[in-house]
Amino acid sequence: MSCQFEVLETGKVYYFNQLTKESVWEKPSIGKNSSKQQQGTTDKVRVLHILIKHKGSRNPTNYKKETITRSKEEARKQLERKHLYFDKFSFYIGCFVYIGIIEEIQESDDIEKTFRRIALEKSDCSSGAREGDLNYFGRKQMQQSFEEASFALAVNEMSDIVDSDSGLHIIYRIA
């Protein structure tokens, strides 16, 4: 997990949000119980997530009952990599750049809105129909790696790729 804010100095200390690319002079507070959330002692969290399954997932079918045939590495690339691809029109108009899901979210003006749209369009989990919203959950209700990542995030912070038996996730904490 990466820290959401970075402290920078240019004669005066300011705080730079690595996720939103915004800077502020005052130390930001994150949510109502900021110190409690940052210490990971909250009882419940609410997150959005995007799940990309692979053929090694514990249930390699998506919520549409389609069999997943991609490898774990292909699933990871879908989340993280920027790469060039060609289609039948590329000969005439050049190549296209595919931006990975994580980069698309990080570069957006409204991270939560973009996260929700991508979850609806691309998540292999049935929660995609709810824009990836898993509602509130407590400890011991999710797979361990997913739970640990969710509780470690501050509100409005996005995780790195989280690997679980279900597949590869990115998580965005909303409460």
How does this structure look, described?
- The protein is α+β, with helices and mostly antiparallel strands and about 180 residues long.
- The chain has one domain: Chitinase A, domain 3, CATH 3.10.50.
- The chain contains six helices and nine strands.
- The longest helix has 12 residues.
- The radius of gyration is 18 Å and the shape is globular.
- The two termini are about 15 Å apart.
- Keywords: Isomerase, Rotamase.
Structural class: alpha+beta
- Overall pLDDT confidence: 81
Q: Please report the distance between the alpha carbons of the first and last residues.
A: 17 Å
Architecture per CATH nomenclature, i.e. the level-2 architecture = Roll
**H/E series, N to C?**
EEEHEHEHEHHEHEE
CATH classification class: Alpha Beta
Number of domains in the coordinates?
Answer: 1
- Our count of helices gives 6
What's the story with the biggest beta sheet?
4 strands, antiparallel
Unreliable runs, pLDDT <50, ≥5 residues?
31-40
Number of strands: 9
Can you give the helix content as a percent range? 25-40%
Radius of gyration: 18 Å
Task: Going across the biggest sheet, name each strand in turn.
Answer: 7-4-9-8
Strand content bin: 15-25%
